[in-house]
């Protein structure tokens, strides 16, 4: 089986994918849309993409593409602890405090702001497509006073020296990844939860529309673990709502709530009903 992931190798997504699919062929893609399209067009059987981080919230590229562009189902969720490392080329390990530019994925840069503020207040920050790309660039330009923020695996892969360990602002930092391409995906990782994720839109100009929609869950005592709005990209001020529903209630009860919303004129898009698999010790 072929499994696509947001690459390159040694990124956090690669870490999640290789742990979830240790015996499958892993194929890197340069962007989230490219990875999702590979699943759509049958280049790979499944795809692994990030969906949310503890510090930075939802990965909007993933959410928007899945809502607007495709109906690929979510078959499983992987939750990976995120530890950010500052790394430099081997010849710069003694002079790493002289770094003038720090490269990484925008989320990794945002997750390490306090460390950067304390040690590199004047350094230029440059966003890259992935943390692994940043590590690769630093490895290929050892003559420059630059550093990358990336996972430990990147330092090993690209022969870099870690000079700042676990520099993320929040100690308990995690990223959720979705496995796309099948209604249900079995993983060799113990699941600890079940979720249903939907996108909800309500009729224009309906007074209290969101309140009415949420009441369909509330009076049935259905637990929602997340709700956020995203622009519909049609008219200013129009949104869809991304909702995570905890799966402890009977499925029929949840189906009844969704049908009530539809009867009110709402539209429901189901992303997936999937098991949640936390990873530890990676």
UniProtKB/TrEMBL annotation:
Under CDD domains, the record lists: ACT_CM-PDT (cd04905), PBP2_Sa-PDT_like (cd13633)
GO CC aspect terms: cytoplasm
Q: Where is the Prephenate dehydratase domain?
A: 2-182
Matching InterPro entries: ACT-like_dom_sf (IPR045865), ACT_dom (IPR002912), Chor_mutase/pphenate_deHydtase (IPR008242), Preph_deHydtase (IPR001086), Preph_deHydtase_CS (IPR018528)
Which ranges form a coiled coil? none
The enzyme class is lyase
Q: Which reaction does it catalyse?
A: prephenate + H(+) = 3-phenylpyruvate + CO2 + H2O
Q: Which UniProt keywords apply?
A: Amino-acid biosynthesis, Aromatic amino acid biosynthesis, Lyase, Phenylalanine biosynthesis
Q: Which PROSITE patterns match?
A: ACT (PS51671), PREPHENATE_DEHYDR_1 (PS00857), PREPHENATE_DEHYDR_2 (PS00858), PREPHENATE_DEHYDR_3 (PS51171)
Q: Where is the ACT domain?
A: 198-275
Q: Cite the annotated pathway.
A: Amino-acid biosynthesis; L-phenylalanine biosynthesis; phenylpyruvate from prephenate: step 1/1
The residue range of the signal peptide is none
Output the SUPFAM superfamilies linked to this UniProt entry. ACT-like, Periplasmic binding protein-like II
Q: Which domain of life is it from?
A: Bacteria
Q: What GO terms are given for molecular function?
A: prephenate dehydratase activity
Q: Where is this site: Essential for prephenate dehydratase activity?
A: 175
* EC number annotated for this UniProt entry: 4.2.1.51
Biological processes, Gene Ontology terms? L-phenylalanine biosynthetic process
Q: Tell whether Lyase is among the UniProt keywords.
A: yes
Identification of the protein by name: Prephenate dehydratase
> Which organism is this protein's natural source?
Enterococcus silesiacus
Q: What is the lineage of its organism?
A: Bacteria, Bacillati, Bacillota, Bacilli, Lactobacillales
């Amino acid at each position: 089986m072929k499994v696509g992931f947001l690459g390159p190798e040694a990124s956090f997504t690669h870490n999640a994918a290789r742990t979830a699919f240790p015996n499958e062929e892993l194929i890197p893609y340069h962007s989230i849309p490219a990875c999702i399209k590979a699943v759509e067009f049958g280049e790979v059987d499944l795809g692994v993409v990030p969906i949310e981080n503890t510090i930075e919230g939802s990965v909007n590229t993933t959410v928007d593409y899945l809502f607007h562009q495709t109906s690929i189902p979510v078959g499983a969720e992987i939750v990976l602890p995120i530890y950010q490392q500052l790394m430099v080329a081997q010849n710069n390990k003694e002079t790493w405090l002289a770094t003038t530019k720090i490269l990484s994925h925008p989320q990794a840069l945002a997750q390490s702001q306090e460390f950067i503020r304390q040690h590199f207040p004047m350094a230029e920050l440059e966003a890259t497509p992935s943390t692994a790309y940043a590590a690769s660039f630093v490895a290929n330009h050892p003559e420059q006073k630059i550093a990358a923020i990336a996972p430990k695996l990147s330092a090993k892969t690209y022969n870099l020296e870690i000079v700042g360990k676990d520099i993320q602002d929040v100690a308990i930092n995690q990223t959720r990844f979705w496995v796309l391409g099948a209604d249900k995906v079995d993983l060799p990782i113990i699941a600890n939860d079940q979720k249903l994720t939907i996108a909800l839109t309500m009729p224009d100009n309906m007074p209290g529309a969101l309140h009415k929609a949420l009441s369909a869950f509330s009076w049935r005592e259905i637990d929602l673990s997340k709700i956020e709005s995203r622009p519909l990209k049609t008219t200013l001020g129009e949104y869809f709502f991304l909702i995570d529903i905890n799966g402890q209630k009977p499925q029929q009860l949840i189906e009844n709530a969704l049908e009530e919303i539809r009867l009110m004129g709402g539209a429901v898009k189901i992303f997936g009903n999937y098991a949640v698999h936390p990873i530890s010790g990676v």
